[in-house]
Amino acid sequence: HHISSAILWGGGERGGGLRWAWHDATTLIPLGIELPKQHSLSAAEGNQISAAVEVLKSLNVNGRSVIHQVILHQLSDESPTSAGISFSSLYSICRKGFLVASENALRAHLAEMKDHKLLRQRRRAEGVVLYVPMGLSQLQQLKEEVQMIGVK
Prior knowledge:
The chain is mainly α. It is 50% helix and 8% strand. It has helices at residues 5-8, 11-14, 31-34, 48-58, 61-76, 87-96, 103-115, 136-149, and strands at residues 85-86, 120-124, 127-131. Strands 1-3-2 form a three-stranded antiparallel beta sheet. Helix 5 crosses helix 7. The model is unreliable at 38-44 (pLDDT under 50).
């Protein structure tokens, strides 16, 4: 039995005329071989851009456009490695560009990017800022890749 089967099928549905067959399909293959394409930026630096592109391809156009705005802001700063954008500034930009309808929608996009280590946050004197953890040349390359994939 699957560990979550009780959650998936409540008490009344479990015996409701359905006849289930359970099969153990464990491959016993190491996870690194079974899942060769990991969609996160934890890969080596040489693969950082390609890993980021894979993550961005899985996002919708609004999600890609949100990260594009963060990248543009970061590149416009004199020191992009220490730069960042506040949530309120990003929300204002995204709202004007019709990328999000609410703060919750923006938070959902940001959570997805944080989960994949594409976006981080840090405390600054002006408060918490969001940033893409890459150097200048990588940010420029990522910006071009995002534009090729498609943004608003």
